[in-house]
Amino acid sequence: MHDGTHATAMDAHWGGGVSPFGAPWQKTMMWIFIITDGLLFSGLLCGYGFLRQASQLSWPKPGEVFSIPFIALMTFILITSSATMGSAVGAAKMDDRKAATRFLFLTILGGAAFLGCQAYEWTHLIHEGARLTSNPWSSPQFSACFFVLTGFHGSHVLSGLVILLITAIRTAMGKTPAQGVEMAGLYWHFADLVWVFIFTLFYLL
Amino acid sequence: MSEGAAHRSPYRIYWITWVILLVITVAMLGAEELHMPRLFLVLFLVAFMMVKATMIGGNFMHLRYEHRRMAFMVASGILLTSLILFFFISPESWHVRSLTSAPAPEPVGHVVE
Description:
Chain A is mainly α. Chain A is built from 7 helices and no strands. Chain B is mostly helical.
């Protein structure tokens, strides 16, 4: 009977005892967290789009406010740190603790460099007169969007660095399994993923 | 598993993805210099943005190796919800812009002479 077969299939996947997503609960929960955090940035980016479209004043051209080569350098640093993070996960899965630790510290270095660049950019813009509620270029919402978007992203990068530092130390001590490195990697790649959207929608368009 | 696959470096996929992401980023930066119509530039940049996002999610985050149900959860959770949010908000922004750009209405009521 169809109903009996359907009920059996449902029980097999959702009846308990097995993961319906084919992954350990730690990975499933990490993905659920990433989805919710992704929705946070989705809301912020939609809000930015709304403010820009509704603004009476014209939005400044990004090249007139930012140094696009500098932003490109930041993007390069973050993408490279994602590659080193992936390599750390690969090494951890191969039980190569030394290589995993090395790649983790390289990722931390990249993340710290990115945050340093972000701090420089903030300092430069504040020096030019940009504030949360006003700026010398156009619509006041422009600088508000910039500080909120990059501020939220930067805070995620900072907390990612803390997670990576703890993971690197524990990996060096042999206390973190490969799955732990993978969880840290998922968070770090998420931070890179968000930057792809911010870089395109705020800095290029 | 074939011998070739067994000896393949575990890092290969990450660095190949890194190269592709950098090439796409350079292409996106170069698009600004082509002086194409604004609509084409937007479509070009958004399309490449989605390609980069897919590569990061699929290769770096290993989503392409996960169960189909997991990939569907992520795609519907983030992408579908974001699209719904975007398409509900966008018309409102045009409405607000039209309200603020319209001339102020004439005052209603008797004018005292």
